Amino acid sequence: MRDICQQLFFPNSNSMGGNVEKAIIETSDGFVALCWTSLGLFSLKPPVPTLSDAEMQIRTDIDRLKRLGGRHHDLNREIINIKLLTKEINDYFRGKPVKFSVAVDWTDYTDFQKKVLQVVKNIPWGQVVSYGQVAVRVGNPRASRAVGGAVGSNRVLLVVPCHRVIARNGTLGGFSSGLDWKRRFLGLENIYF
DNA sequence: CTAACTAAACCTA
DNA sequence: TAGGTTTAGTTAG
């Protein structure tokens, strides 16, 4: 089978202190935009139809990083292996059971959001967990609704697989990027709603 | 204050 | 048993 996914470009984008990088990766589902800092992956967006759409999408997060300022430097540490990440994203969209190896930049999340997202990050490929169960795992059993809010703040789609969090009664629950993407991602993992 | 990717405990008939 | 209401938790705007 031919490799339909490829990394399109890999520029050193930055002006403010040289502390952010971005890439746009072409997959079978569209162009995936992402950016990272010396701490790890900061943002990974859902696929969009065109390259310029992807550029537009990631601009918001780049601007946000610049606004945060100061805390990000020392990019030369090469914390991100973009080659490997590109391969993992490619594999994911081919339906392979990928376990992402990339480090995440947790900057600008609240403590609660961080706890929730780190729990969600550990949900294995092909498995789902309810909002309530995640609430239990962060030690706050009645916070299922707050968990919904927290996963909604997730910047790194797929890497923190918030699409694997569903409602208790066997329904899909919500998804900030649109329920179609939630269905699509779960479908790639052989889970159908 | 409210709305948002929830869910369980309590009513009431 | 089914259906409606309340309550709990976090957070951005």
**How would you characterize the largest beta sheet?**
4 strands, antiparallel
Rounded to an integer, what's the Rg over CA atoms? 16 Å
Strand order of the largest sheet: 1-2-3-4
Mean pLDDT across residues: 88
Question: Structural class from helices and strands?
Answer: alpha+beta
Number of strands: 6
In whole angstroms, the N-to-C terminal distance is 28 Å
Spell the H/E element sequence: EEEEHHHEHHEH
* Principal-axes shape call: globular
Question: Which residues form runs of ≥5 with pLDDT under 50?
Answer: 1-18
Helix content: 25-40%
Number of helices: 6
Tell me the strand percentage band.
5-15%
Characterise this structure.
The strands form 2 sheets. Strands 1-2-3-4 form a 4-stranded antiparallel sheet. It is an alpha+beta fold and 193 residues long. The protein is 34% helix and 15% strand. It has helices at residues 51-68, 82-93, 111-121, 131-137, 144-151, 179-188; strands at 6-9, 21-27, 30-37, 40-44, 129-130, 165-166. Helix 3 (111-121) packs across helix 5 (144-151) and helix 4 (131-137) packs across helix 5 (144-151). The protein contains 6 helices and 6 strands; from the N terminus they run E-E-E-E-H-H-H-E-H-H-E-H. The longest helix is centred in the first third of the chain and has 18 residues, at 51-68. Strand 3 (30-37) and strand 4 form a beta hairpin. The protein binds a DNA duplex (13 and 13 nucleotides) through helix 3, helix 4, helix 5 and strand 6.
